Amino acid sequence: MTTLAEITAVLEAAYPPALAEDWDAVGLVCGDPAEPVSSVLFAVDAVPETVDEAIETGAQLLVTHHPLLLRGVHGVGADTPKGALLHRLIRNGVGLYTAHTNADSADPGVNDALAEALGLTVTGPLRPKPADPLDKIVAFVPTGAAIRAVHEALSAAGAGEIGDYSHCSFATAGTGQFLPHAGANPAIGEVGRLERVAETRLEMVLPRHRRRAVVEALRASHPYEEPAFDVLELAELPSRRGLGRVGTIAPEPLSTFTSRVAAALPETAWGVRAAGDPDRVVERVAVCGGAGDSALSAAVAAGVDAYVTADLRHHPASEHLLAGGPALVDVAHWASEWPWCAQAAAVIDKELGGSVDTRVSTIRTDPWTLGRNA
Q1: Residues 59 and 22: beta-carbon distance below 8 Å
Q2: Were both Cys, which of 5, 72, 115, 300 would link to 33 (CB 3.0–4.6 Å)?
Q3: 125 and 63 housed in the same domain
């Protein structure tokens, strides 16, 4: 039996809530973490149609990209549109979970799914987020059984984790020296006598937010009354996390690339439109799922030939082209984010070994329902 709590843990490992923008609302909206889940439906939006689909297909969890309750509320009465949806979900035993801007910036995330759909080879994020800051602790421990005890204590406190590995460390042998003075209670040696001891220099990295816990673990596990150690702040490292993605394709004219985008994404009334010379050669591309005009300057700085995003406005687009920026390809907001649903479903399939059925909704929840050409 797989519980809702286990599924949300998998989702939050893939799309860490800490990556969400401070204005965002992500995570579990409704549902009992202890309840079993055997089927999950993925969609971009929680709207009446996708809620109906979740109920009709027997899903116990609806996972969406867009938050149902983005802004603070003081009640969810069933006499309001959003409150009515929540009441329907709860009455039918369906939980609701949202991964929004945390999924946008995750690696992989929304923008990797969009880039993959377009056939791009991703080289990095468009607007990188800095990697989580790291420290290194260097401790000097008497050689022998104390090494294992200190190493285990530091590991348990959060040190030594690198990617999918834990208990990572490096140790070198050396000689420690100290002279205990009156009032000292040395674990090795005597007051007033210079002591030289075979010691091991133990080095481990740690997330900076775990610094206090790791230092306390060192003091508690070290045999010395006054353990010697250093805590070093490591330089900021580049990260593959962040908004948007930059990638490459085989060179082709903008007209052909625009057709590529239209063929890769689900059809919408909004369609796909491009701004720029139809014959311009496109090879280096930036993408940003959802409304991406805030990253126009980043696309210029990245030196791309074309920028694919949604919800572009007339004046920013016009001014961008006037300044000689890359070609623009504007798609429907919903269509740009829909490929993520399959990615998120695959995360559950992989991590839970197929113990939970996953389904991606194909209902078009884009608000635009009609489109006409002159």
Answers
A1: no
A2: 5
A3: no
According to the annotation, is 222 in a ligand binding site? Answer: no
Q: In angstroms, what is the C-alpha Rg of the chain?
A: 27
The verdict on whether residue 333 carries a ligand-binding annotation is yes
Of all helices (H) and strands (E), which one includes residue 289?
A: strand 281-291
How many Å apart are CA 21 and CA 372, to the nearest integer? Answer: 36
**pLDDT category, 374, cuts 50, 70, 90?**
low
Question: CA-to-CA distance for 50 and 64, rounded, in angstroms?
Answer: 10
- Name the residue range of residue 273's domain: 110-129+240-336
Is 167 known to sit in a ligand binding site? no
66 is in an annotated binding site: yes
Q: What is the pLDDT of residues 45-100, one digit of tens each?
A: 999 999 999 999 999 999 999 999 988 788 888 889 999 999 999 999 999 999 99
- What's the rounded Cα separation, in Å, for the pair 237 and 232? 15
CA-CA-CA-CA torsion sign (358, 363, 366, 371) = positive
- Burial (0-12, 13-18, 19+ Cβ within 10 Å), 158: middle
Say if residue 225 carries a ligand binding annotation.
no
User: Considering the domain boundaries, does residue 39 fall inside one?
Assistant: yes
CATH assignment at residue 247: 3.40.1390.30
